[in-house]
Amino acid sequence: METPLRIAIADDHALFRQGLKSQLRLQPGLVVVGEVDRADQLEAMIAATPCDIVLLDLQMERSSLADIKALAERVTVVVVTASEHPDDALAALRSGARAVVSRWPRATCGCRPRSRSTWRRA
């Protein structure tokens, strides 16, 4: 049996976090291990709760952009954002995020990694 991917969610909207957790629970091989609602809680959460992926809101009580580089050295960072500005996505990717996903359905592409190992850190 394959070890499930451990996912942590960092987003300041409780309803969005709840919906995201509900959707992730439907996926075999994924488990949500932690969540925070403030960017300044990220380091402590990751230290206390090991995870493989952080789903990170780009704009919480402050911009999370400055946190991505340090986080990306420890865990895979996927930015989930409502921003429609391409510069935000580029900045997140240049800082070390592995992907940027829009919250808006019209922007989804249905893309999937080739395998689960694509998302694991080396």
Q: Which class in CATH terms?
A: Alpha Beta
CATH topology: Rossmann fold
Tally of DSSP helical segments: 4
Number of domains: 1
- How many beta strands in the DSSP annotation? 5
Structural class by helix and strand composition: alpha/beta
Helix content, binned percent: 25-40%
Overview of the molecule:
- This protein has 4 helices and 5 strands; from the N terminus they run E-H-E-H-E-H-E-H-E.
- The chain has 122 residues and is an alpha/beta fold.
- The chain has a single domain, classed as Response regulator (Rossmann fold, 3-Layer(aba) Sandwich).
- The chain has a 5-stranded parallel beta sheet, with helices on both faces.
- Helix 1 links the parallel strand 1 and strand 2 (30-36).
- The longest helix has 12 residues, at 14-25.
- Mean pLDDT is 84; it is low at 107-114.
Would you kindly provide a brief summary of this structure?
The chain has 122 residues and is of the alpha/beta class.
Layout: helices, strands, pairs:
Layout: E1 5-10, H1 14-25, E2 30-36, H2 42-48, E3 53-57, H3 65-72, E4 76-81, H4 86-95, E5 99-102
Parallel strand pairs: 1-2, 1-3, 3-4, 4-5
Provide tags for this entry:
single chain; 122 residues; alpha/beta; Rossmann fold; 4 helices; 5 strands; globular
